Amino acid sequence: MDSFKDKIANLARSMGKSFDTRQPVIDYKDMRKHYERQANEEVRQIQQRAKKQRVEAIHGRSDLNPKWTFANLVEDSDDVIEAVSIAQSFIAAHDDPAWRQSGSHMMLFYGDYGRGKSHIAGAIAHQLIDQYEISVLYRQLSTLQEMRYSSYDFNAQDNIGQKFREINQELLDVDLLILDEVCVNESVLKKNTQSWLGNLLRQRLVNKKNCILITNHNLNELEHALGRYCFESIREYDTYKVRFSGPSRRQSLGQDEADAPATSSRYQPNQVR
């Protein structure tokens, strides 16, 4: 009895075609699996490219310093080590959908100038963007105050009012808002600014949006500077308070390089490598 291959060969000869019986018969199931794997790989690559584009777009809108990463952070003081530990716990919590939907969370970084507060806040933001595509906006409060005051100039020709309204909407909508230099050089915010900032924080609280506030004040000074209404808005959040107490990371300008000793034990953590 002729085999299946022989029948195909006879059919080919009758049609004037050649058929090599040594060639394996095509297994269409295997072929289908092969093409499915190939298609899945192409879809995966398309998804990766799309995610990369989304992440790059979020980074571009965030206004973060690209050097503010954990890779550029030297953990050589207790306050920095503790801050990084809290930061990593905050980031890891985003893996839990229940935590993300449980309410609004705020990290409050406080301490003197040059302690690494902005750096660690930026490192948190960069990692959240990369891992979870969290939208982030970094702003200095003093800059927002200036724009807000300028928006009341009805004779201005630069559409500053419209620009501030657009920025204010971004402040409300973004997943993570980082406000730096909160109450810098100010013992007390003006009453209307207290109300505006308090309302902003309360609206973000209702919408389950997270915040990082960075200030040079201690907590008692900050409460006085923000006013009771605004500070009570902060109390409503699930708040992580992080105190930075180590020496300044910024280079002193008090001595010329030519006069500096050849070997120095001056404290220099958190410098970009």
Main-sheet strand order equals 2-3-4-1-5
Under the CATH scheme, which architecture of the largest domain would be assigned?
3-Layer(aba) Sandwich
Sequence stretches where pLDDT stays below 50 over 5 or more residues = 260-273
Provide the β-strand percentage band: 5-15%
State the total count of DSSP E strands: 5
Shape summary? elongated
**What do we call the CATH topology of the largest domain?**
Rossmann fold
- Return the average pLDDT rounded to an integer: 82
Question: Count of DSSP helices?
Answer: 10
Tell me the name of the CATH homologous superfamily of the largest domain.
P-loop containing nucleotide triphosphate hydrolases
Fold and architecture overview:
- The structure is a single chain.
- 51% of the residues lie in helices and 11% in strands.
- It is an alpha/beta fold and 273 residues long.
- It has 2 domains: 27-62; 63-248, 3-Layer(aba) Sandwich (Rossmann fold).
- α3 (78-92) packs parallel to α5 (117-132) and α8 (191-206) packs parallel to α10.
- The radius of gyration is 30 Å and the shape is elongated.
- It starts with a helix and ends in a 29-residue tail after the last strand.
- 25% of the residues are buried.
